Amino acid sequence: MARTIGSRALKAGLPPGTLVHIGQKRSDQVKITFTEYSESQYLSREIKEIKEFLPLKDKPVVTWIDINGIHSLETIENIGEYFQLHPLILEDIANSEQRSKVEDFGEYLFIVLKFLSYDAEKKLGIEQISFILGSNFVITFQEHDEDAFLPIKTRIKNSAGRIRAMGADYLAYSLIDAIVDNYFVILEEIGLKLDLLEEELVTNPTRDTLRLIHQLKREMLLIRKSIWPSREVISSLQRGEFSFFEDIAVLHLKDVYDHAIQVIDTIETLRDMLSEMMDIYLSSISNRINDVMRVLTIITTIFIPLSFIAGVYGMNFKYIPELNWRYGYPIVLFSMLLLGILMLVYFRKKKWL
After folding, report:
1. Are residues 325 and 275 in the same domain?
2. Which of 26, 27, 19, 146 is CA-nearest to residue 92?
3. C or N terminus of the chain, fewer CB within 10 Å?
4. Total tally of structural domains belonging to the chain
5. Is residue 2 very low, low, confident or very high in pLDDT (cuts 50, 70, 90)?
6. What is the DSSP string of 211-228?
7. Is the dihedral of CA 248, 116, 183, 111 positive or negative?
8. Are 222 and 165 within one domain?
9. What residue numbers bound the domain in which 327 lies?
10. Residue 93 · residue 75 · CB < 8 Å
11. pLDDT > 50? residue 12
12. Is there a single domain that holds both residue 324 and residue 271?
């Protein structure tokens, strides 16, 4: 039984193992790349039908099946039937909101991680990537057509490094390492945004600045939510808890785990910087308001005695002593000007201006 829906709420009440697509609805063609390689041979091609798979058992090569698009439930069902995958695994593969995890099913290992990217509009994208690791094969499920593993495919094709001489476990390590390394790329881009934002905060903070701070805070929250469980997954793998990974792959996974720790530390640092930037923004706005209020207060203070003088000489009484002075008008104006200047000098001396 398979259904295509976009909301987790619509799945409530369905039996466990029911194959349901939860995520962005798509209708494009699923892309399946079938790759076989060893130290001396290499074959890679795109296929349309699962029936085109060659038998994998007892083959002296590593087989990598990369599937771009989890919206095709028929494809997932066919793969599950061909490799005899547990229905709960198929359910998790079709659910793009699955938390990162690793599970041992005896004959194969199931791993879920998150891949981060920015699209052309600089909008953060979080993609789920699922792994099935067997004795001599790896199956990867990606949500979109963007090839997250293009560098690994290039290394295999060009026989760069030791990957062609190693087994499926080393391929799985390389793919996981590529995902973690990409975290640094995303965080570095966010770091550059924070540098520009910090300069704007100091020079001219605006409402757009506040909007950008809130946007980055949301992005960092999503990134932390996506990456934090990945550290637990890599920690389990690097401890050698699963027999699918040979010693050399476990050794390299320890390095990936160190990178994951650095990623987490960087995330926490960036989140602290964003919180401080919010405080800086509020302080800048408050200081700007204080400056405006100070100028207005000084202007008001200067004009209070001037208004008093103008009020006194604006009264309509016949017997005002200075009423018949020939130079009364210029003297009063000069006195008002002199009083204003003296008050400005006093404010300057007190450093209120």
Report:
1. no
2. 19
3. N
4. 2
5. very low
6. HHHHHHHHHHHHHHHHHH
7. negative
8. yes
9. 313-349
10. no
11. yes
12. no
